[in-house]
Amino acid sequence: MLAGKRILLIIGGGIAAYKSLELIRLFAKAGAKVVPVLTKAGAEFVTPLSVSALAGTKVYTDLFDLTDEAEMGHIQLSRAADLVVVAPATADLMGKMATGRADDLASTLLLATDKRVMIAPAMNVRMWLHPATQRNLATLQGDGILTVGPNDGDMACGEFGPGRMAEPAQILAAATAALTSGPLFGKHVLVTSGPTHEPIDPVRYIANRSSGAQGAALAAALRDLGARVSFVTGPASVPPPAGVDVIRVETARQMLAAVLAALPADAAVMAAAVADWRVANEAGQKMKKDGSGRAPGLEFAENPDILATVSHSPDRPRLVVGFAAETETVVQHATAKRARKGCDWIVANDVSPGTGIMGGDENAVTLISEAGAEDWPRMSKDEVARRLAGRIAEALQ
Ligand code: C5P
C-alpha cells in the first residue's frame, strides 16, 4: 500500500517510544522505507540498535555528527521523504515545532522540511490539557501539520485521560490516508502562482502586487485532496505549501518553460499574475543617470500568454482554469477572456483598490464556465481554494 513511499520517522523521548518500534515494523510491512531519527531523550527509551535493526537502515541521532553531514546533510534528509511522522511527539517537541526552534537534529529537520508532517502526541494528561500545549497544538494545526491521537486511556504515569499515543495501526492508517487517498489521488495538477519579475537591468525589475496567497492556498487544497501538485511560482511573498513540487521562476518566459516541462497534467490552474510585458531592451549593466536629466527609454515586448499556450497545447490538460483580476464589468470581461484564452473555467475577481482583495486574505469570485457565471460569496482565500479544489476533483472524476 505504501510501496515506494519514504517515511522520515522522528522518535521523541517518551515511554510511548516503545510503540514506535512496532510502527516501524508496520510501515515496513506496508512497503514503506522508514528513515528513523532518534532524539537524545528518545534514546533513553529505545536503543538506536533496535530502531536501526527494525528499520533495516542507519538511525540518525545527532545534528553534529559530521559523518552524517558528509553522507547526507540534514536539509537533504528532511526533504528526501514523502511524509515526516513524529511519534511520540512530546510536549517539548511540539513546543519546539510551534516556536520554530532548531537546537537538535529532530527539531532542525522539522524546521527545514518542505514535506507534510504528522504528529502523534503522547504525554501526561495534565501536560496535554495545559493551555500552553493546546496553544502549541492550535499553532501547529494552523501551520497545516496533521495530527493523529492522542487517545484516552490509562497512562504509564498512573493517570487516566487523553494523552496516550495513538496505536501504531492507527498511525499507519492516518499516514496511509495522507499519502494515498483523496478524490484527486493519482492525478497530477499544475498550479502557477505569484507575480513575475521582468528585469530592466541586473538590479531593477518590473513587478506587480500579487502575494501568491491564492495560488499557495490552491496548491495546498489540491494536495489535501490527494493530488500530486507541481507548483510553478514567481517571487511571491507567501511561502509555498509543504508537500508540493516547487519550481521557482522569475520571469514569464521562465514560467512558460517550467509549465511546459511539467506537462502532462490532468488539470492546470493558472493563478499567477504574469506580467503582460517585459523590457525588450534590458540592459546588461546597471543603468546610470547621465546627468542630462533625460529618462531612459524603455521598450516593451509582449510576454507569452501561458494560459493560452497551455490551453492550445497538444498536451492540454483535461481541465484548464484561469484567473481574471478585473477592476470593472468583471463578468463580461472574464467571459470574453475565457473564450479568448481557450480555457475551461475562469475564476474572476474584482481587484479594485476598495475591495482589499489584491494582497489581502479574502476573495470574492465568480466562476465562469460553459454553464455560465456563478457568484461565490466573499470568503477567505483558503476557503475559495478548498471549494475550487473540490470542483476540480468533481470535474476530473
Ligand atoms: O490576460 P490576463 O492577465 O487578465 O489573464 C489572466 C489569466 O491568464 C490568469 O490565469 C493568468 O495566470 C494567465 N496569464 C498567463 N500568462 C500571461 C498572462 C496571463 O498565463 N502572460
Supply the CATH architecture of the largest domain: 3-Layer(aba) Sandwich
Please identify which CATH superfamily of the largest domain we are dealing with: CoaB-like
Strand order of the largest sheet: 12-11-8-13-16-17-19-20
Bound molecules: cytidine-5'-monophosphate
* Unreliable stretches: none
Report the biggest beta sheet as strand number plus sense, adding barrel if it closes.
Answer: 8 strands, mixed
Count of individual beta strands: 21
Write the layout of secondary structure elements.
Elements: E1 6-11, H1 17-29, E2 33-38, H2 48-55, H3 66-71, H4 74-79, E3 83-89, H5 91-99, H6 105-112, E4 116-121, H7 125-129, H8 131-142, E5 146-147, E6 151-154, E7 160-164, H9 168-180, E8 188-193, E9 198-201, E10 204-206, H10 213-224, E11 228-233, E12 245-248, H11 252-262, E13 267-270, E14 277-279, E15 300-302, H12 306-311, E16 319-326, H13 330-341, E17 345-350, E18 362-363, E19 365-369, E20 372-375, E21 379-380, H14 381-396
Parallel strand pairs: 1-2, 1-3, 3-4, 4-5, 8-11, 8-13, 11-12, 13-16, 16-17
Antiparallel strand pairs: 6-7, 9-10, 14-15, 17-19, 18-21, 19-20
The structure holds cytidine-5'-monophosphate.
Cytidine-5'-monophosphate (C5P) binds at residues 192, 252, 270, 272, 274, 276, 303, 305-307, 322-324, 337.
